[in-house]
Amino acid sequence: MGEQDRDAAALEALRWLIEAGADEAVAEAAVDRYAVAAAPPSVAKTPASPPRIATSELSPRPPDPSPPVWAPVAAPPAPPQELLEDARRLAAAAADLNALHDSIRAFDGCSLKQSATNTVIYRGNPESKIMLIGEAPGREEDLQGRPFVGAAGQLLDRLLTWAGFDPEDVFITNLLFWRPPGNRTPETREIALCLPFIERHIVLMQPEYLLLIGNVSTQALLGQKGGITRLRGRWFPYSQEGLGAPVPAMAMLHPAFLLRQPAQKRLAWRDILAFREAVTGGIKAI
């Protein structure tokens, strides 16, 4: 094979390698490009054929220092006990419902308030002897500043109306006054901070009947450990200092649960009819 044929064969082999993806020549030993880039300009220039550089001859480049972590300057949060005492103090100082509602709006101890749009306290008749207590505001309640105005509230209104109650003639509120993000279940700490206000609500109103809507309000106010499906439709005596006598309280499935489980509406309907019978008949069924 002549010299011209060898050159043609070499070019063809090179073309084949490039088409196969081998488009860069490498040395027999790995080259630390970071070390080369960090060297002075005279050293950083590499000849056409890079010299062999032994790995042992290269010193490792020291790592770049991490950037400082920014942290906002803020006062440490108050201890939970201090917040709880503040809630109790504000609730106990309220002589009437208006003062209590002002105290709730002024209370900044519950972290839910920081992400809520509105403080949601009540709707209906403040002079009613029938008090309904749910769990916490949802999205629509947070936007409008009134409890039970979304889809679950509309179902509750229909149940009350069908049972012979005017929703505007009863007092409807929640255990919590601010919406938990994403409508998550309220945390124990959040419930504890709102509980003094709802307890003061009950004392100031002196209701004759309580309808506790959902698992959270039932467990918090009655101290019951069972689930709502076991507690619903049952009467319990609610007692606390400031009430002349125990108040009959019934537990009921939450309308939001009924929207997810429509087959359970028959149980809710049965319970609200029993509640109406007690109210209209003056039955102290505890």
Q: How does this structure look, described?
A:
This protein is α/β, with parallel strands linked by helices and 286 residues long. It has a single domain, classed as Uracil-DNA glycosylase-like domain (Uracil-DNA Glycosylase, subunit E, 3-Layer(aba) Sandwich). It is built from 13 helices and 6 strands. A hairpin with an 8-residue loop joins strand 5 and strand 6. Helix 4 runs parallel beside helix 9. The longest helix is centred in the last third of the chain and has 18 residues.
Between the first and last Cα atoms, what is the distance in angstroms?
112 Å
Biggest sheet: strands, sense, closure? Answer: 6 strands, mixed
> Tell me, what's the shape?
elongated
- CATH 2nd-level architecture: 3-Layer(aba) Sandwich
**SSE succession:** HHHHHHEEHHEHEHHEEHH
Provide mean pLDDT, rounded: 85
Low-confidence stretches: none
- Record field, number of beta strands: 6
Q: What is the assembly state of the chains in this entry?
A: single chain
Which homologous superfamily in CATH is the superfamily?
Uracil-DNA glycosylase-like domain
Number of domain units: 1
Order of adjacent strands in the largest pleated sheet = 1-3-2-4-6-5
The fraction of residues in strands falls at: 5-15%
How much helicity do the residues have?
A: 40-55%
Structural class: alpha/beta
Per the CATH scheme, the topology name is Uracil-DNA Glycosylase, subunit E
The CATH class, by name, is Alpha Beta
The total of helices stands at 13
Radius of gyration: 36 Å
